[in-house]
Each structure stands twice: as C-alpha cells, then as structure tokens.
Amino acid sequence: MEPSKRVITPQAEDFPQWYQDVVREAGLAESSDVRGCGIVKPYGYKIWDHIKTELARKIEATGAENVYFPLFVPIANLEAEADHVEGFSPELAVVTHAGGEELTEKYAVRPTSEAAMYTTYAKWVQSYRDLPMRLNQWNNVVRWEKRPRAFLRWSEFQWQEGHSVFVDEQSALDEVWQMLAIYKDMYAHMAIPVIDGKKSESEKFAGAVMTTTVEAMARDGKAIQGATSHYLGTNFAKVFNVKYLGADGEHHLAHQTSWGMSWRSVGALIMAHGDDNGLRLPPNVAPIQVVIVPIYKDENKDTVLGFARRIASQLSSMRVHLDERDGQTPGFKFHEWEVKGIPVRLEIGGKEADEKAVTVYRRDTGAKEKISANDAWEYIMKLFGDIHDTLHDQAQAFMTSHIHRIESINDIDDRIGFFEASWSETLESEKLLKERFSIVSRVLPRQYENTVPKNAKCFITGEPAKHDWYFAKSY
Questions:
Q1: Element spanning 180, H or E
Q2: Tell me, what DSSP letter sits at residue 408?
Q3: Which of 130, 211, 243, 286 could form a disulfide with 281 if both were Cys (CB 3.0 to 4.6 A apart)?
Q4: Number of C-beta neighbours around residue 89 at 10 A
Q5: What span, in angstroms and rounded, lies between the C-alpha atoms of 393 and 208?
Q6: Which neighbouring-strand residues pair with 369?
Q7: pLDDT per residue over 80-101, tens digit each?
Q8: What is residue 335's three-state secondary structure?
C-alpha cells in the first residue's frame, strides 16, 4: 500500500485549504452529521489531552479549584446582563422542548458560564472571609458559528473557564494578568510565541470592563486569539447580587474575573508550525515523540525487528511507537509519520542492526544523523529541547518579520501579517477599518500600554493617538 494520492495543498497556494488538508490527512478530526460541529479523532484528541494536562497543572498550581455546573442556562439569567446577552444572542442555541412538551422556561445551551454560575456565587459569597473564591471548570460550550473551521471555530468546543471573586479591584486585576501570564506560558510550552495585552472596547468580552488576550500568528499572517482573561468589575455582581459583608460591617459588591482557553489552541499549533508536508509538533505535546521504523528484508527481518524492539524498550520513558506493520513500504510509513508531525523518527535497517546504531531524522529541519544506539536516549532527550527551541525561534522570526509599521490607513496593502499603528481607539474608526479592509484591532501590546505612541496622530482619523496597536485579519 503506497501513500494516498490525496495531497496537501501548498500553504502559498491556499492556506485555509492547506489547513483542512492537514486536519484530514493527519487524522485529527472530521465533520459530523451536525453542521458546524466536528468529530475529534484519537490522534487529535491526544494532542488536546497533552495541552489540557499541562494547563490544568498550571491552573491548579495557582490554587484554583475545579467545579462543574450544568450545561443549560435559564434564558432569564442570560437576559439579566444586557451587554452579555446582546453579545451572545446571534450564537445562542436555545432548548424550547423537552420531555415531549414545550417548556414554560426556555434554556440556552451555555455559550459561557457567567450567567450559569453567578446566581450560585451569590449564595456562596456572604462574607469577606469567603474571598477570594477561585473556581475553574472543564466543559463544552456551544456558540452557533456561521463559518465553522476545525478546532478554531466549531459550534461546540471544549475548554476551561475560570471564574474568580475578590473583595477589591486591584486583587481582581492582579488575577487577570496572572492568568494571562499562564496562558502565555502555555503557548511557550507549545513553542508558539504570542503577543499579550488588551482588547479594544469593541472587541472585548460582552459585559466585561476589560479583556486581555494572547494573540498568535498563523503562517499566512492572520491572527489567532489564543486565550482571554477578563476583568468583569462589578457588572455581573450588580445583576446577580454577588455581595459580601466586609470587615467594616457594610455590604460591598464583589469584583469578578473570568478566563479561558480552548482546543482552539490545537488549531494554533497546526497553523504556527505546520509546513507543506503536514504537522510539525513540538515534543511537549506530541502524542508520539519518537517513531521507530524498521527496514528489513525477509532474510534479516528477525534481526532488525529484534534490535528495533530493544531500542524501543531503551526509550520507554518517552512516548515511543514501533511501527511493525507488514504490507506497507518504509516510504509509506515515512510519509504518514511526517504528515502526523512526529518530532523524531528512528530508521533501523540491517546496517544499523549490525553496527548497533540508529539513523535519527528530525521533523522540524529534515536533518538526518546516524548515532550509536548506546547514546540514543541521551541524544534524543537533548534533541527534544533543540526541536522545541527551533520551532519557537522559527515562529518568532516569522512573526517579527511580519509586523509592519504603518502611519496611515492608506499604507494598508496586501502584505500578510500584523500592522502596527498609532490609534485614537474610537469605535467609529475601528468600524471604518473593518468595513474597508476586514481588519480589526487585535491587541494593545502590554509593552506599549504605558508608552507614548510613536505617532501623535491616529493613523485612521488624524485625531490624537492614545497607544500603538496591532491590527490584523483573523481566524
């Protein structure tokens, strides 16, 4: 059986089609019978599992505790916060019938859980001694997407969402930035550089006072919102009566935050590192870190397989897979594992078995090297770190070289990447930019938050500029 005739579209030819091809050919996911919803296949889910495991470790290390709330949200709860319901109305899935009859009270399938959780928070929070309260849940949510895309924009997706309560604004703001830093670290764990900072008024979370974000860059220059952390102020506390009795004997509104990261991160991983041959996975999140492909003839099959099995045993502390399938050529196997992005491939033929050596192929650069089998474990462990750094450095170099400084809206052209510009931050100017170029503000980089803009005038209106922002098309 030789490699499939189905090919992966080159990135330069059609990047969105390249993405769909890789998702299919690498066996990550496929469409379901429900429009806009996908089926995540075992290999794709293992990648998400490795991301989840590390993210859960980081979140739990901050002291946040896990809970679980119901999937359904009373519509009345959503409607209580006007900005919130307005922001999510176009994406809501509503349950109107159940148990064979029409429901007197309608339920939304949660698009996010603020409205689902905060009525309960009002019961749990009574005194300042109950605070801070920092809870997180792993769940699935539904936002009815008009233009679905695997992992990035399915109508149903998995994520974690944290919801914290504090006595004062500063404690809540500290939480916002702490959780955003965790998300930035999480993307670094995946060898993906991101830009951290604030969202604009029109792009912030519905009902929030402030939204912060980490933004990644795909290989076609578009932005991917990697995760968000929101300061909700007392907006939801007012609506859901989340108050506490302070040490001063008075009742006060609580200050709240919410923060989340989803399996959109799998899409970012594909788009940040993949090439025309498929995935390129950093070892930290690769379901298989090392694949061993034995190459033999009938006369030396037992010798080669025996040696390959000993190498697999030697590397058992890693996520290693020995490909012993009969009836498929080494070339077919090489192709399959390249598409799946396995970081390291070991080729073992009769010569390697005789010499007690292995040929090491690294997916990130395509380089090959023969090494002694005795040195394999130490060599590969070191190689993991080098592969991670190489992927990160390549992604960082791509991002840096595709951030273009502009001084006027007329400077916007067909260059891929982000445009950096000084901006007045008005809603009208952002609307104009979106209508004319399908570009929106992505992030006010944190390093620019307290600096004077490079140009005193807004690049759109000529009015006084407030900060330097990054603008881009996005997924």
A1: helix 169-189
A2: S
A3: 286
A4: 13
A5: 35
A6: 360
A7: 876 776 767 788 999 999 999 9
A8: helix
